[in-house]
Amino acid sequence: MEEETKIIYPELSYKIIGIAYKIFNTLGFGHKEIFYQRAFANELQDSKINFKRESRYPIFYKNKTIGTYIPDFLIEDKIIVELKVRPKIGYTHIKQTLNYLRTTNLKLAIIIYFTKEGVKSRRIVNIQNN
Q1: 37-94: per-residue pLDDT in tens?
Q2: Third-level CATH fold of 2-129
Q3: 74 - beta bridge partners?
């Protein structure tokens, strides 16, 4: 039971969410997603957190590439981060992020979305990789 309630990468997750709040407190709401992504990349660099931006992950069918997934960020080769500018996150965003986790075989993704009310986030766990 204890294993089921364990938070995955708590310290790194806390830093990631903190960066999002810092960006929102500086920029506010209403900008294009790309501007939040650029600010996020700058803050990750300043915080000396290793990341990859928009890495490509091919999708195969019968040994042929049929598509590519491109998550916004891969942090420390552990956590996928997706940034959104919208009032709420829907099923399609969660499903997309789960597909990223399954493709990369990672355990955790965080969807961060910037709303009029502030920063919100949703942790997505790949239960197939626990």
Answers
A1: 999 999 999 999 999 999 999 999 999 999 999 999 999 999 999 999 998 888 999 9
A2: Lambda Exonuclease; Chain A (3.90.320)
A3: 52, 80
